[in-house]
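Appendix B. One record, verbatim.
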Amino acid sequence: MSYEEMMQRLTEITSRLEREQLPLEEASKLYAEGMELAGKCHTILNEAVLSVQEIEVSGKEE
């Protein structure tokens, strides 16, 4: 799943949790899925930042 797809799914989960009266079990599953996706997105963003920083550093060395 791409970063964009994960963010779209997170948006869907958030909307459902905010707008719907869900049974506790379903809400718990959605929350867990959302937290997992948020962690993956955070990792992807951190890797992207590190990649950009490496490019900036290597560009300055030349």
